[in-house]
Amino acid sequence: MEKFLQKVLVPLTIVTTPFQSIWQKWEGHSGSSTNGFMCSAANYTTEIVSLDPVAIYINGFISSWEIAHLRDLADKEGAFTHHEDKYPDHKTHNARRVASSLYLPSDDIVVDCIIKRSTDFVGFIPNDGFEALQVVKYHEGGDRHDPHYDWFLSPPQVTSGLTCNRAASFFVYLGDEPEGGETCFHFLQPAPQDADPKRFSNINSDDGLGFAVKPFTGNAMFWMNLHSNNTGDVRVQHSALPIRSGTKYGMNILLKRCFEA
Known about the structure:
Helix content: 10-25%
Order of helices and strands: HEEHEEHEEEEEEEEEEE
CATH architecture: Sandwich
CATH superfamily: q2cbj1_9rhob like domain
Low-confidence stretches: 1-31
Mean pLDDT: 83
Number of domains: 1
Oligomer: single chain
Number of helices: 3
């Protein structure tokens, strides 16, 4: 009987696998209903960009289905807020942000899943959870984010004697893979000349310095913003280079750390 089942089930697996793949592709294009959604571990891989400061490139951090859901969710939340001002906490740097953004609801099942995945990724890094997820959109024709830090020069005080800052950042690419729009880290070493040109740019910034990541859908960058003594690390200064053609969608996932001032 065991041999008979092996002969029957193996061909059955071969036959059903293509249909399963077709169903998954169809399901991914038929809307973003969360009926039956299971938050599973992501099948991503990582590449260490820098050890000091810590910076890691993540391949396949979120799935195409999750991206479709997040894009739909952003559209349902209402209009993006357009920003055309200096980066609020670094005005002395003359850093200008020209982009649009909105925050995603924390009670969405997929948003919650991505927060859990991000929590697993940071492991034992001391933290106090994440800020609300923020989707950003850059258009061609001047949208950009000049060199800036994610950490606050003057972090907000949440309770008496307790201050919170952004310990680490994820930036996840949600499409549509425009021309330009690289995320450039000005004090990290450039990618090697033989690096994958679909993900990394050899034209790293206007002055030719730094490490630049192209907006490759589903992938992400992770980096630490604070030193162990909770002061900001100036070496993680970064910018969003201008869009030459198309539209860039991304998502900020910002890890908080609270401490006594």
